[in-house]
Structure formats: structure tokens, C-alpha cells
Design a protein that fits this description.
CATH architecture of the largest domain: 3-Layer(aba) Sandwich
Bound molecules: oxa(dethia)-CoA
Number of strands: 13
CATH superfamily of the largest domain: Thiolase/Chalcone synthase
Largest sheet: 5 strands, mixed
Distance between the termini: 16 Å
Strand content: 15-25%
Strand order of the largest sheet: 1-7-6-4-5
């Protein structure tokens, strides 16, 4: 840490009501519950309602995180939303969240780093706190991926779900460390064809649909997340044995096992919510952490590693103190 210390004072989440099961998907595309479970670990995922926007999901998660932190929205002076499914091309989804939670005229902007968006947003927020540019940050990962899935493509539509998760981070001059003890972020644009949306305002003038080269992405994702985690641990002068919990991006249970095996992290320390959430992109890590706090696994003082990789490729890892 080079500046002011910080603490993570609240974690919240929101999942839409509608549950889409593997069974239902078998009536939509040529797939099976057995294939989806064995190849991905997913049994169901949530789908936002047609009239629910990403900022609705994000604002619900933000309210939950603020309530758990015990502070009003007026205390927040930085809002960052990580998303690839903004309500509109512009303005940012963060300004809609700001309006919905009545956070005044605070700084608010979005971060686009696909599934690694939340870790990027967290790192930016922590830097603002360390340098005194902000005192209380709301960091949200929110995505409504159902709105740009190709529901005829069985290789992608079975993988994703909708949701949002949020952290409240606060600067604390008395704290000896930052809530983010160490991190590593990286990207490789040459691998963008492995996962992307085939549209955009300045190319096709459309939103596009998700396209993925699954098996190549699988290998790249395991390598990227393992490396980023290894670098982050070394930066924090820690070993995998020091970790209480490992919360990888919930993209595929086999990817999660692959990373844990490479770093010798025992399976009982790996937080898995993919079975119920699917891949919720930037919401995946805060949603999993929120679940593990609620069921009593993650406790105050625990050391937790997070890592994510996705479209870009963009990837990263961070070591967090709860
Ligand atoms: O969030 C960003 C990070 N995301 C990732 O990193 C995702 C990475 N990739 C993956 O998780 C996996 O590659 C998938 C789950 C997407 C696919 O699993 P896979 O074991 O790599 O399968 P595959 O793509 O090699 O396909 C194997 C077979 C193919 O059939 P053939 O050619 O062997 O006859 C596919 O057509 O599985 C078929 N297949 C399906 N079968 C039933 C693909 N999707 C399905 C499906 N149901 N939904």
C-alpha cells in the first residue's frame, strides 16, 4: 500500500426472480441437462424481466450493500459500475444507479472489461481511496447478458445468467493496509476473437450477439487467471496456504478446478455458485462473495483471492482482506 488504508464495509447482491433451468433450455436448443452440468457445472441461472435494466439490477445490489454497511447513499462519493450490458450506449449505467439510489452529484462512471470488469473497477476504486480522491466508493458488477445472447446457439446461451453484486469500500487512515492487498490486471487484444459481441455503435450500429470459441477460450482463461493469481499472491508476499477462500470467476466449474489445482488450493476453499447463477460476467465475483458471506463461509478478517478472465481477453486477480 502506498497511501491511505481502506476497508470493505459492505457487500450486497441482487438476483432477478425468474429461474431458468437446464430442463427448460432443452426445450429451446439441442442440449441436455447432463451435458450442461458435466461440461459447465451449471444447473440453473436467473433471467431479468424484460423491463428490468442493468441499472435496476445494479441499484438493487447497491441498496443491499449500503444497508449492510449501515451508511446512507449520501455518504458515497464514487460510483463505478462494471458492465458490458449498459442501459444505453451512453450515458453510463453508473449515472442511472446514482439517480436511483439518490446519491446526489457524486462521481459516477462505468468500466468495460467484460467478465474481469469487477476486478478492474475494484482496483480503480481502491486507487481513488488510497490517493484521497474519494472516501467512500460503491463498486458494482452488473450484467443482463440475456439481452444479447443468441438463443439459437447452444454453445453460448446455456452458459450465462443475469445478476448484480456490490461492494462498499471506505478509506480508513487508521488501517494499516488497503482492502485490496495486491492485484494484477492484464489484457491481450489479439485474443479478442475468442469472446466478443458481433455488433457495436461504431461498427454495425447494432448491439450484436455474444460469440465465443469455447475450447480455446477455456485454455486461455485457465492460464490467464492462474498467472494473475500467482503474481498477486507474490505481490502480497503470501502463498496459497495463507488464503481462507478462493473466489474465481464463475464461468465453468472445470476452469475453476483447473486454476485451484495449479495453485494447490484445496477444493473446500473454493467458493462455487456457478450451479445456481451460471456465468453472470462482471457480477459473478461479488455475487459469489455475497452468497458466501450470507451462508457464513467468509467472515471478518478472512483473506480471499479473486480472479477473473473474459472478453478482451481482459483478466486480473486481487487479494482481499474482509
Ligand atoms: O466468462 C468468460 C470466460 N468464459 C470461458 O472461459 C468459457 C470457456 N469455455 C468453456 O467453458 C467451454 O469451452 C464450453 C462450456 C463453452 C464448451 O465446453 P467444451 O468441453 O469445450 O466443449 P466444445 O466446445 O469442445 O464442444 C464439444 C461438443 C461439440 O460437439 P462435437 O463437435 O464434438 O460433436 C459441441 O457442438 O459439445 C457440443 N456442444 C453441446 N452439446 C450439447 C456445445 N454446446 C453444447 C450444448 N449441449 N449446450
Amino acid at each position: 500500500m502506498t497511501g491511505i488504508g481502506s476497508r470493505l464495509i459492505g457487500v450486497g447482491s441482487y438476483l432477478p426472480e425468474r429461474i431458468l433451468t437446464n430442463e427448460e433450455l432443452t426445450r429451446m436448443v439441442d442440449t441436455s441437462d447432463e451435458w450442461i452440468r458435466s461440461r459447465t457445472g451449471i444447473t440453473s441461472r436467473r433471467m431479468a424481466a424484460d423491463d428490468q435494466t442493468t441499472s435496476d439490477l445494479a441499484a438493487n445490489a447497491a441498496r443491499d450493500a449500503l444497508a449492510r454497511a449501515g451508511i446512507p447513499s449520501s455518504s458515497v462519493d464514487l460510483i463505478i459500475v462494471a458492465t458490458v450490458t449498459p442501459d444505453r450506449t451512453f450515458p453510463s449505467t453508473a449515472v442511472y444507479v446514482q439517480e436511483k439510489i439518490s446519491a446526489g452529484t457524486t462521481m459516477a462512471f462505468d468500466v468495460s472489461a467484460a467478465c474481469a470488469g469487477f476486478i478492474h473497477a475494484l482496483e480503480i476504486a481502491d486507487s481513488f481511496l488510497q490517493t484521497g480522491r474519494a472516501k467512500t466508493a460503491l463498486v458494482i458488477g452488473a450484467d443482463k447478458l440475456s439481452c444479447f445472447l443468441d438463443w439459437n446457439d447452444r454453445a453460448t446461451c446455456v452458459l450465462f445468467g443475469d445478476g448484480a453484486g456490490a461492494f462498499v469500500l471506505q478509506a480508513d487512515p487508521e488501517a494499516e493496509t488497503s482492502a485490496v492487498l495486491a492485484s494484477h490486471l492484464s489484457a491481450d487484444g489479439t485474443k479478442s476473437p475468442l469472446l466478443y459481441a458481433d455488433g457495436g455503435p461504431s461498427s454495425t450500429g447494432t448491439v450484436g450477439l455474444v460469440r465465443m470459441v469455447g475450447n480455446e477460450l477455456f485454455r486461455a482463461a485457465v492460464n490467464a487467471m492462474s498467472d494473475a493469481l500467482d503474481i498477486s499472491l507474490k505481490r502480497a508476499a503470501l502463498t496459497p496456504d495463507d488464503l481462507d477462500w478462493f473466489v474465481p470467476h464463475q464461468a465453468n466449474i472445470r476452469i475453476m478446478h483447473g486454476i485451484a489445482e495449479r495453485l494447490n488450493i484445496p477444493d473446500e476453499k473454493v467458493v462455487k455458485t456457478i450451479q445456481d447463477h451460471g456465468n453472470t460476467s462482471s457480477a459473478s465475483i461479488p455475487l459469489a462473495i455475497s452468497t458466501a458471506i450470507d451462508d457464513g463461509r467468509i467472515q471478518d478478517g478472512n483473506l480471499c483471492a479473486v480472479t477473473a478472465a473474459g472478453g478482451g481477453l481482459a483478466w486480473g486477480a486481487a487479494i482481499l482482506r474482509f
